[in-house]
Structures are given as structure tokens and as C-alpha cells.
Amino acid sequence: MISPHVILQMRQKTVAGNWKMNLDYQEGLALFSEVINRVKAEVTGIQQVIICCPFIHLHALVQLAQGFEKTAVGAQNIHQSESGAHTGEVSAKMVRSVGAAYVIVGHSERRQEFGEGNVLLAEKIDIALKNNLKPIFCMGETIKEREAGKHFDVISQQLTESVFHLNEAQIDKLILAYEPVWSIGTGITASTEQAQEMHFFIRNQIAAEYGQAAADRISILYGGSVNPENAADIFAKPDIDGGLIGGASLKSRDFVAIVNVFNRS
Ligand code: PGA
């Protein structure tokens, strides 16, 4: 019988950067090279680093990361269909074909700007998995929803409608990210208690649906104004397995400092 403490240690620690719509081609390559060099020089733990970049960077970043298994590359979105007449869109198969391993699904900026809802996001998760891409599925409540005391209901619904149709083998391929919308890019992080409380809730929901072992294995990242100063307190919480980092992922020193929080724990 493995103790819960050992399981906790076994859970993959992950820090994912989300560059959003920033950096031209040359700037992206330069930043990624800096990140890799710093990770090589400074990161001694087994934590995983994922960079989710714009589509134009994907192929080059995969090439730069080759042979260095600590760092993986992901996209920030895919279309829900296999292929076809969807001008301007990019498919999961295309993303996979350049060697990317991950894709963010359900980021609140896509939910808000492009009206992506839970049912559509379920389709995106499916097409990602079908094409061997691991989804980083983002959930989060708005400030209005939190103030109305609806935050647990919102997260529960996001999980139920986008994730719970998956089978056990599929759920193992998912990374979850809790990102309170009011905390993204605002400089306001959820308190460590609020974050841990929600991560514990999410893990319990997974346990109720897929069993405790699956819940103990799944990585749940926290996202929203994480920086080198606050990351240690946030990542110290038992149900927080790393972070999804926006603004601070655009500076290699800050980003790798966040990754390095796990070297100390
Ligand atoms: P932020 O973004 O770190 O800039 O708040 C996080 C995210 O949107 O993933």
C-alpha cells in the first residue's frame, strides 16, 4: 500500500508557460533558447517545463527542444474538427505533425473573446486526444460568480460538460489548470487557501468520477498572476502541482525562477 504522501511526491510537477499573442518569430526563438539554457544550467529537479507558444513558433521550438526531455512544446488552441473548410484555423493533427505534445483547451480568454463553451471544449479535448496531443484543460470562475458564491458550481459544470465523458485511460492524459478569471493578468492571485480549496475540490470531483487513484495521479496547475515572489507559497499547497504562467513566462529569468521553486521543495 503506497501512502498518500508517496503518491503526492510521484505526481508530475509541471510549469507551463502561455505566451499568448506575444513575440514575433525571432523573439520567440530567442526567448525559448534562453529558457532552455537556463533550465539546463539551473533546474536540478524532475519537474516538467512546457511552453505553449503561437502556432508560428511551434515547429522551430520543437526542434530546439529535441533531445532535452525536460522541456516540451504545446499550442494554445486547436479547431474541434479533423480538417476541412475552416479558413484560418489549425487542426490537432497539424499541431501534432510538427512534434508538439500539448495544447491548451478552454483558456478563459478563448471562452470570453471567442465564445467557446463547455460542449465545444469537450470536442476540442476529444480531437486533441485522438491526435495524441495532451490537453491542458483550463477552468475558472469570474469575479461575479465568486462573489455570488457560485465558484464551485461553475467549476463542477466545466468539468462535467467538458471532461467527464472521457474514459479512465483518457483522463490520465489530461492536465487540469484552475485559473480564476479575476486573477489572470491582473496581478491579483487567489489566496493560497482559495487556490488549495478549489484544487482539493477538483481532485475530489475527479475521484468521485474516476476513483481515488486517478485523482491522485492527475496534475492540477494553478494559473493567474503567478510570479517568482508568490510561486513558492502557491506551489507548497498539497493539491497544487505547478502553474500555468502567462506574463512571467515572457521573461526567461522569471519563468525559470518559478520552475525552480520545486528544486527547493
Ligand atoms: P498571467 O496569465 O500569469 O499573466 O495571469 C495566466 C494565464 O492566462 O494562463
Strand content: 5-15%
How are strands sequenced across the largest beta sheet?
Answer: 1-2-3-4-5-6-7-8
Series of secondary-structure elements, N-terminal to C-terminal? HEHEHEHEHHEHHHEHHEHEHH
Helix fraction? 40-55%
Index terms:
single chain, 8-stranded parallel β-barrel
Describe the structure.
The protein is an alpha/beta fold. The chain has a single domain, classed as TIM Barrel (Alpha-Beta Barrel). The protein has helices spanning 4-10, 25-42, 55-65, 92-97, 108-114, 118-130, 143-147, 151-162, 168-171, 192-210, 212-217, 231-235, 252-259, 261-264; strands at 14-18, 48-52, 71-75, 102-105, 134-139, 175-178, 220-223, 242-245. An eight-stranded parallel barrel has the order 1-2-3-4-5-6-7-8, surrounded by six helices. Helix 3 links the parallel strand 2 and strand 3 (71-75). Helix 2 runs parallel beside helix 3 (55-65) and helix 6 packs across helix 8 (151-162). It is globular. The two termini are 24 Å apart. The model has no long low-confidence stretch (mean pLDDT 94). The chain binds 2-phosphoglycolic acid (PGA). 2-phosphoglycolic acid binds next to strand 8.
How are the elements arranged and paired?
Layout: H1 4-10, E1 14-18, H2 25-42, E2 48-52, H3 55-65, E3 71-75, H4 92-97, E4 102-105, H5 108-114, H6 118-130, E5 134-139, H7 143-147, H8 151-162, H9 168-171, E6 175-178, H10 192-210, H11 212-217, E7 220-223, H12 231-235, E8 242-245, H13 252-259, H14 261-264
Parallel strand pairs: 1-2, 1-8, 2-3, 3-4, 4-5, 5-6, 6-7, 7-8
Helix pairs in contact: 2-3, 2-13, 6-8, 8-10
